[in-house]
Specification:
alpha/beta, Rossmann fold, Barwin-like endoglucanases, 3 domains, seven-stranded mixed sheet, six-stranded mixed barrel, globular
């Protein structure tokens, strides 16, 4: 079969006059998809999926297909620039890489000497697999402050899985789960970390039962055997209700419970605080449906849970993650073939080791912003963004003077966007590395041209938990763009860290592969390496937790002063927690639904992707639209206690009339005169970031369920 496919490649190269084909690994979104990249006259001419690749099996999403258009876009930043006017003026001057990095290094050295290394904050967004180098430069500098999306995206899954069962449990689609719960996720569109939509779709085609937990009727929900349309923000109560059924009907794996769990008796008491009548009232889900879903999942093995960030971007973040792991474990599906596996990566220098976390002095780690409040997050080097904005605006607990953002656009992606904008306007110095001048980059002093995945060598997915490392091979050089790894490697030499870095970053790749006795030049001749796959390892070794058991009662959280058992907390704004506010803002607003062509704030410059989603959309039930005088396609105002934005109405019967759903990540690259319209349709104008509304352990901001009003837009309606 492989020979046949390569014959097709050769035939295609001759037919279209391609000069060469390079096998690589896409990172247009969460990464991992194998690709063929065809080159003609020194430029990328075509990209297609690699049918022999174990991650995507030849499939490729629209973001991967559009990678060349992003790389060669006429607005692409191709060389370093410095701002020559006031912040937000849009006036830039070309400079050399030496001037750019020397200026950044001088600022780092100056602030480190005057205010301490903690006054310098590095940051990244969803990342381009750059987290290891960013943490490395920060930790070696002595700054404990790396601002990521980790407080409410994927990071909580890692934190909570480590303290519960040792590592993040990943679905074994390869061996055919018979029942899948899709919870707060739509893998067919989002292709999230460690997953692609194709294996999920194949599992359904082969007859797997499907339970979907979602406030909206998504395509998977329409295909589900059971759809649990819960009230937004009540996931913990729903999971506790399902566990109540599993415990009291004795549907759990008795051998697993008796031999491999810790805290069973206390856990049962907590579960019994959530009878189905109570859970139905909290969640709006009929108790009969909760019971049916629990029975189906517990009795159809192997089973697995496809989860996503929707359950993490709320006040119950850590407990939501733990409860879903409890559902996996108690039904006998943890580290089970066709269930949820605790995969092993190949023997490499892992992200934590490469990131030099052990080299951050203890006294500096103690200065981590927000670490005294969000103690589980601090243990995993995660900080809550508001603590950074406070340190800039109020200079408490100490001043932050410099920001360096890589692959991040916090003006649009972080909650309470007005406060974010205020902080970035005030900070003394900011550098940004990105593909384009974004609303965040407009506030920077220096912007560096970042390379896309087509322009770098790297070890793809080496930070993930699915057990693979993948070869990402450089295909082309475009302008003066450089990978994040290369630019930070050079910067490190300028700030006195040279002994811990390399002459070129190929040395860093060799360092990662060193435990395998391999160098990059060897690995790039391969497509991937997979770690050893074994099941039920806990029967031999136990779990990598303090008790060596699957912890239902978390000894780690108990020592930190948190409730060791999960619970349901009402979200900060809801008909239950703020009934008076609900009278003025009568609808529950959910945010964050994914669109196929966009990756958070990215890709709105690409003509054909933008053509699929020209305008931001808010979904409204037809009854709600009629009540508010709104018609299909109208621009409408969505207003919360924090502000107003506008989006286009899409009438959608697959949502509760009490709920509206707005899209996130919106800015307008074409509106250069108004900082790209960052505040017109940006849903984070509406969200809150008050500490009191965050998850108490991990600091996740509650952005997925808040209160709003909605009405027709008139000119000037956002004033």
């Amino acid at each position: 079969m492989t020979e046949f496919r390569y014959a097709n490649v050769e035939r295609e190269m001759k037919m279209y006059g391609f000069d060469r084909m390079v096998k690589s690994t896409c990172r247009g979104c969460h990464g991992g998809c194998g690709v063929y990249v065809y080159v003609k006259d020194g430029k990328v001419a075509k990209i297609q999926g690699d049918p022999d690749h174990p991650i995507n099996h030849g499939t490729l999403c629209s973001k991967g297909l559009a990678a060349a258009e992003i790389a060669y876009h006429p607005d692409r930043l191709l060389y370093p620039v410095k701002r020559v006017g006031p912040k937000g003026s849009g006036r830039w001057e070309r400079i050399t890489w030496d001037e750019a990095l020397d200026t950044i290094a001088d600022r780092i050295n100056n602030y480190r000497e005057k205010y301490g290394p903690e006054s310098i904050v590095f940051g990244y967004g969803t990342g381009r697999e750059n987290e290891a180098v960013i943490y490395r430069i920060a930790n070696l500098l002595g700054s404990p402050n790396v601002l990521t999306a980790g407080h409410f995206c994927y990071g909580p899954r890692i934190c909570t899985s480590i303290i519960t069962c040792g590592t993040n449990p990943i679905i074994d689609y390869e061996n055919g789960p018979k029942c899948i719960i899709m919870w707060g996720n739509n893998v067919t569109i989002s292709n999230p970390d460690c997953y692609k939509g194709e294996p999920f779709s194949v599992a359904l085609s082969r007859g797997a039962k499907l339970i979907v937990v979602d406030p909206r009727l998504t395509r998977p929900a329409a295909r589900a055997d059971i759809w649990l349309q819960l009230r937004p923000g009540t996931d913990a109560a729903l999971a506790l209700g399902m566990l109540n059924v599993i415990v009291n009907e004795k549907l759990y794996d008795k051998e697993f419970v008796e031999n491999y769990t810790f805290g069973w008796d206390e856990f049962v008491k907590r579960v019994n605080e959530y009878p189905l009548e109570k859970v139905e009232k909290i969640t709006w889900v009929p108790k009969e449906k909760i019971q049916a879903a629990a029975r189906l999942f517990a009795t159809t093995r192997p089973g697995a849970i496809q989860w996503g960030v929707a359950i993490e971007q709320q006040i119950n973040c850590a407990d939501n993650d733990r409860l879903l792991m409890f559902l996996m474990g108690l039904t006998g599906n943890i580290d089970a073939q066709g269930g949820q596996v605790l995969y092993k990566t190949p023997p490499i220098v892992n992200v934590g080791q490469f990131g030099a976390h052990a080299m951050l002095p203890r006294e500096q780690a103690a200065k981590r912003l927000g670490g005294d409040r969000f103690r589980l997050a601090a243990r995993f080097a995660i900080i809550n963004p508001k603590s950074v904005w406070d340190a800039i605006i109020e200079e408490k607990p100490y001043p932050v003077k410099m920001l360096f953002f890589i692959s991040s656009n916090p003006v649009v992606t972080r909650d309470n966007a007005k406060e974010v904008y205020k902080a970035l306007e005030k900070v003394e110095f900011m550098a940004v590395a990105d593909f384009f001048i974004t609303p965040t980059a407009e506030l920077a002093d220096i912007v560096l041209p970042a390379a896309t995945w087509l322009e770098m060598d790297y070890i793809g997915d080496f930070w993930k938990r699915h057990g693979y490392i993948l070869a990402r091979r450089k295909v082309v050089q475009i302008g003066e763009c450089r990978s994040d790894h290369e630019m930070l490697n050079d910067l490190a030499h300028r700030i006195g860290q040279g002994q811990f870095w390399w002459d070129s970053f190929e040395g860093g790749l060799d360092y990662i592969l060193e435990p395998m006795g391999m160098k990059w030049r060897d690995f790039k001749e391969m497509d991937y390496v997979r770690g050893e796959v074994r099941y039920k390892k806990y029967k031999e070794f136990g779990f990598s937790t303090p008790t060596r058991k699957f912890e239902l009662y978390s000894t780690t959280l108990e020592k930190m002063g948190y409730d060791p058992l999960p619970q349901h907390r009402e979200v900060p704004e809801s008909p239950v927690s703020t009934p008076e506010l609900n009278k003025e803002y009568p609808y529950i607003l959910i945010t964050g639904a994914r669109q196929p062509g966009f990756f958070h704030t990215e890709n709105r410059q690409v003509k054909w992707l933008r053509g699929l989603h020209r305008d931001p959309i808010v979904q409204i039930h037809p009854d709600t639209a009629a009540k508010e005088g709104i018609k299909e396609g109208d621009w409408v105002v969505i207003e919360s206690p924090r502000g107003k934005i506008k989006q286009r109405a899409a009438l959608f019967p697959g949502i509760d009339p009490r709920v509206v759903a707005a899209q996130h990540g919106w800015w307008f690259p074409e509106k250069k005169e108004s900082n790209h319209g960052w505040d017109e349709s940006n849903v984070n104008i509406l969200t809150d970031n008050a500490y009191e509304g965050c998850d108490p352990a991990i600091g996740a901001t509650n952005i997925r369920a808040l209160l709003c009003k909605i009405y027709p837009y008139k000119d000037g309606g956002l004033k």
